[in-house]
Amino acid sequence: MDERTNEIYSLLDARFSNAGCELTFSNHYELIVAVILSARCTDKRVNIITKDLFKKYPSPKALSMANIDELQQAIYSCGFYRNKAKNLISMAQDLCDRFNGVVPDNYEGLLSLAGVGRKTANVVMSVGFDIPAIAVDTHVFRVSNRLKLVSAKTPLQCEMELRKIVDKDKWSRIHHLLVLFGRYVCSSRSPHCRDCELKKYCDYYRSKGKE
Ligand code: SF4
Q1: CB of 86 closer than 8 Å to CB of 2
Q2: Boundaries of domain holding 154
């Protein structure tokens, strides 16, 4: 990594030394369900929902046969529940029909599952299978651009640019660091710039005339 990227990484690493996945799961099937539910929802809320959900639907087979009304009710509080319920059932059917109920450990397989986009696939790859990957959510996208780590117009472009400048063995970790930094410091509408040790790297900070 170049010096600038390395400094940013080190400062984030020092601030969030315990960074990691905050979703609760005990196998790959539970992980992929939790990640699908986490779209536009907090991990905390997902963990509350999945506590009972995984008891009721403990396997892809059980989820593939779920009654959609019951499933919608079970996941109602995480938002977008109609779409998520439909996708979860289709994803579970795909797993049973084409993967013998086993979550695949590669992009091709993961992206072929209903409701699984690149962000979900990257989280499953890195968190579930320990394969280097950078999932780009709204926090990673915003913070990477503000810090000029990338100059990206789309999440995919952001992922590809980050892959180029960050050492491969740090891909999974920088995802978690940028998520936490975006969630707790560099929020979308009111970032805590006063307390931010990264302001000297920040385009957004300069553009707001704060320096
Ligand atoms: S200075 Fe403000 S906008 Fe820039 S990275 Fe820090 S918190 Fe975010």
Answers
A1: no
A2: 3-18+134-207
